[in-house]
Design a protein that fits this description.
With 71 residues, this protein is mostly helical. The chain is built from two helices and no strands. Helix content is 89%, strand content 0%.
């Protein structure tokens, strides 16, 4: 696989991750008023999982970009 194709693949995964993460935040905002404390904690936990996935994907993209730039 060419470096350009790899970079595009990682960039798409990163964009998809960002979309899911932002959607999760919006869902939490939209439903927070009707949530119990327990439901709010569960929603925040799910949001933290999405944030971790997003951060991992970002780190992968940055690592790839750094390696491609050094080559």
């Amino acid at each position: 696989m060419s470096l350009d194709l790899c970079h595009k693949t990682f960039a798409i995964a990163y964009a998809d991750s960002m979309h899911v993460y932002l959607r999760s935040i919006q869902d939490l905002i939209d439903t927070a008023v009707d949530m119990t404390d327990r439901q709010m904690l569960e929603a925040i936990k799910r949001l933290m999982v999405e944030a971790t996935k997003h951060a991992d994907r970002y780190a992968t993209v940055r690592s790839f970009e750094d390696k491609a730039g050094a080559a």
